[in-house]
Each structure stands twice: as structure tokens, then as C-alpha cells.
Amino acid sequence: MESLSVFNTTASFPLFSSSLDHPRPQFSLTPSSYSPMPKLDVVHCAAAQAQSSAVAAAAKPKEAKLWGGRFEEGVTDAVERFTESISFDKALYKHDILGSKAHASMLAKQGLMTAEDRDSIHEGLTEIQRRIESGEFEWRTDREDVHMNIEAALTDLIGEAAKKLHTARSRNDQVLTDFRLWCRDAIEAILVQIKHLQVSLVHLALKNEGLIVPGYTHLQRAQPVLLQHLLLAFVEQLERDAGRLLDCKERLNFCPLGACALAGTGLPIDRFMTSDALGFTAPMRNSIDAVSDRDFVLEFLSANSITAIHLSRLGEEWVLWASEEFGFITPSDAVSTGSSIMPQKKNPDPMELVRGKSARVVGDLVTLLMLCKGLPLAYNRDLQEDKEPVFDSVKTILGMLEVSAEFAQNITFNKERIQKALPAGHLDATTLADYLVKKGIPFRTSHDIVGRAVAVCVSKGCQLKELNLDELKSINPVFDKDVYEFLGVENAVKKFSSYGSTGSECVASQLDHWVTKLGLTKGA
Length: 524
Description:
The chain is mainly α. It is 55% helix and 6% strand. A hairpin with a 2-residue loop joins β4 and β5 (220-226). It is elongated and about 100 Å long.
């Protein structure tokens, strides 16, 4: 199974490989080499550093830009540092090489380069990929980005044939081809982690059959629910998260390659050939749209943000339940941390960070929304800034999903504590109202009757099931001895029968659905 290495984390995330329609290259998200701006109180140090850099630059002449034919002088060091993107877009190297190989094959088929040149380009690109992955490749800031670094290195390696590779191609369509391929693979990696968390939650549900917990609204006791029902609520949310990503993947899977800068080309290229070779559904119909819009990354980050919000809610649930005030769960030491000053502390930090990192994922989306707002057609250099928020969103959501699954696998539900907590809050009150409805009393009237019964309990400090029949009849004569079949949390849960409800049979059916859908085996 291939793995997805994300920035400088130690975690690896498996890629879907068995279910892909097209082969997907393994990819890495590499760390940014961003250097912070100097502080005001050390400007003299920064100036000295700049002077030193200038001396070094004078000693080593800059390489002429591949686009520099009409320019009489090169850019300044400050402009070069400010405009480079190689520090982060080198993460696209595999997809750039993949796209270039497909483009070269198409150019050869169309008679725009020879078969020998094509083969030489393919061999050279394969060697460059080997050098990158072995750490031998030199990424150069003066070559600006991943595309120019690879193309210039290819020219150094194979000579004149490499100069034909950019025929009928601009960096505008090239980078978007790379980016769409990268996002497609990233979605597959996230889908794997979503399923992993779903499996972990279903296993947790299977281990806690029949356990009743308080259900809450407004964070106040509401009705009794089966723990399995509550856990499956998160599984359902994750399934919709996966569905949004699949929808996004379907919409982004169109090929911009061949759109060139914005207007297409007069050369006889075959965009359908490159689209097919790269596993896209089809070429994008409009060349201006192909190079100018980033709605596919906006949709991707929107889907990630919704997933992050769902995970933040799961995190909050478990942080609360792990507190002394609730005490419903005990995380194992393997997923807990301590305090530097308070020896007794055992904190559910992973889920607190899941809750906190959701803000980061949403922030990445907002960054992209503001970046794209008001941009005129077609391409603008602003769009260079689209990648880092996407890389960060993917890295973060993968980590959130992985650690949530780890946490689910390492918690124990404190059944005795939960049982002791159940009597408080009159959780069976709504079921008692349903009892009265079955006796022919309108629900609004039933609601009022039960409210008065609860008031009696509050004044006496008892539960509804502890009221004797005479006390209930004094509130309304319709009460009979069969009322006790509806009172108490166990009886209340048994009375739920509507589709999707927390009734035992309903939840068993839901659980069977997920066991089958996720390919699990009960008792395994």
C-alpha cells in the first residue's frame, strides 16, 4: 500500500489504490522554507544579511530566466525572494512530471516533435524524478517554481530536445493540471481516513451494545438514547463528508492542459489525448475558464471545512465526557497528556486539538475565498497563493481524522458512572407524554400534564417512575397501572419505534447497515 507523507509529520496515510479508475502517483506535501521578515529592532542585522547575499549573488551570476528574452536586466534579489514559489509548489513535482510526459507523447503523435525527442524527454523526466526522490536534485530559487526547475534541469540533462516540451503549453495551464491531479489524489487519501474513522466508531458501537446514555439538547438532559445511536450519528455525518469530496472530485476531474495562457493555441494539438492519458473525464471546454478559475479548490476546502466542523463536534463531545463533571469516558494513557505543573492531570489533548484545528481548516477556506474575490479574467499572479492553504488544509484534515480514529480506539465508557447519571433530568418525560397521546389525549394537553408531573417530582426530589399511581391520577385520571411500562430510561428506549430512532430494533438495523457497508464482521 502506498503512503502519503504530509509535510514534516511522522504520520503516513494510505492511499486508495484498489478502487481507482486510473493509476495515481504517490505524492508528498513538502514543507515550506519560509523565512520570517526581520523584526524592526534588528534591521541592521537584516541589512547586513542582504549585503552578504548581494555579494554572494555578484560572485555567482544569476541564470537567465526562461521567459527573459525581452528583458534587459534581471529582477532584484528582493523581488526574486518575494515571487518564488518553489519553496512550496515543489510538492507538485510528480504531477508535473506526469503531465509533461503526457504532453510530450501528444506532441510527438501530432508531429510537433520526433519520437526520439519524446523518448529522450521521458527518460530525462524519469531521471529527474529519481534525483528528486533520492535527494540529489537541487531546487533553485532563481528558477522560480517547480515547472521551471524541472524544465531547466531537463534542458541541462538532455539538451535541445527539452526546449520543445513547452510547445503549446503555458505555466498557466500546466500548474492547474498539476494542481487538479494533486487534489484528486489528496481527496482519495482523505476518503481513506474518513472510512478508517467510520470503522473505528462502528467497532466502538459494537463493543457497547445496549448502553444507554443521556441525550442532550441545549446541553441539558433531554431523552435517553443508545450510545450506539449517538456514535452512528457521527458515522452518518462522515458519510456525507465523503460524498461531498467525491462530488468535488468528479467536478475537478477535467483537464486544463492545452488551454495555454488563456486563448488556446493555433498548433494542431490533441487535448483529448492528454486528458485521457492523465485520467481526466474530458478537456475543459473553455480555455479562459480553464486557467482562471479556482472553484475546484474552493469546493475542496469547503468540503474539508465541513468535515473539520463535524470532527470538532466529536472532539467537544469527548472532551466533555472525559471531564470529572461527566466522567462518561476514560481515555487510555496512549491518547492523553499531562500537565507540567499539576501532577494529577490527564488531559484529552488530541481531541482538544481536533476541536481547535478546525479553525485552521476553515481559515484556509476563507483565505482562498478572499484570494479569488474580484479577480478579473483570466490568470493573475495572485493565484500563486492558492496552494499553501490547500496543502495546509489537506495536511490538517488528515491529521484530525487519523487522531480521532486513534482516540476512538483508546477510550473506555464508564458504564457505572453513566448508569448513576441516568436518573437525573426526567429523561422519560416525553415518553410519558406519548403514553397519554396513546390514551387519546392531544399532545399539547399531554405536554402540560407531564409538565405538572415533573413539577411534583421536583418538589419531592424523586423520579417520574417513583410517583405512585394515586399521585399520577391526582394529576389526571387517565393514568393507569400500565403507565409504568413507559417510565424509566430502559422502558423509554424500548418505546421508540420510528424509522431512524433510538429504539433497540431501529439502532440494530442501523448498525447492521454500517457493518455491511464498511465490510466489517460482528465480533471481529
